[in-house]
Amino acid sequence: MCTTTHDPAPLSVEECERARLARDPAYDGRFFTCVQTTGIYCRPICPARPPKPENVTYCTTAAAAELSGYRPCLRCRPETAPFSPAWNGSQTTVARALRLIEDGALDGPGASVDGLADRLGVGARQLSRLFRKHAGATPLQVARTVRVQRAKRLLDDTDLSMTEIADQAGFGSLRRFNTVFAEVYHRPPSDYRNRKRKGRGSPTGHRALNPEPLRV
């Protein structure tokens, strides 16, 4: 079950429902709509036909939605949502940790939650507890979502090879990239890119993409 639990002012289900039905841009990035009948999660501004209220639950972060078994909507593109203020909350430690994760603190060989916690001056268990409270997911689950979202932006906006994308997105290997992307989007990245190119007629021609802030 997805819930809205961000600090300091938790959103009620009723408030989320009003924002979703109104497609209120002021709430974009503050929560995500999880549609039980399709298994997809969306931004509150999604242009798709709104699902019935009884088929909807809510999450404060993309990582929490994916942890609950939902995959990202390909129409509203949750990876491009504004940075969620829910993740800042009242915990400076969580905000600092998120910035470090965006910068790749949990990517690559030897990276660990223990190492991240040491950099922040807290224990690993305490850090994980804060993440569960404010993000609805663990640091490793958040890092996984960050990597997938980086990869999808690179697939959408560049002509980089799959190996280059896997490396730039922070995956340890092409095999791991293929596995995780398929788990989230229910199709391999090569298939996703081919479908996108068929839909738009030609690739973008860009060869590089500056990393964006975390979008959840």
UniProtKB/TrEMBL annotation:
This is Methylphosphotriester-DNA--protein-cysteine methyltransferase family protein. The keyword Aminoacyl-tRNA synthetase does not apply. PANTHER family: ARAC SUBFAMILY, HTH-TYPE TRANSCRIPTIONAL ACTIVATOR RHAS-RELATED. Keywords: Activator, DNA-binding, Methyltransferase, Transcription, Transcription regulation, Transferase. Residues 188-216 are annotated as: Disordered. Pfam families: Ada_Zn_binding, HTH_18. InterPro entries: Ada-like_dom_sf, Ada_DNA_repair_Zn-bd, AraC_XylS_family_regulators, Homeodomain-like_sf, HTH_AraC, Me-P-triester_DNA_alkyl-Trfase. It comes from the Bacteria. Its cofactor is Zn(2+). One of its GO terms (molecular function) is sequence-specific DNA binding. Residues 95-195 form the HTH araC/xylS-type domain. One of its GO terms (biological process) is methylation.
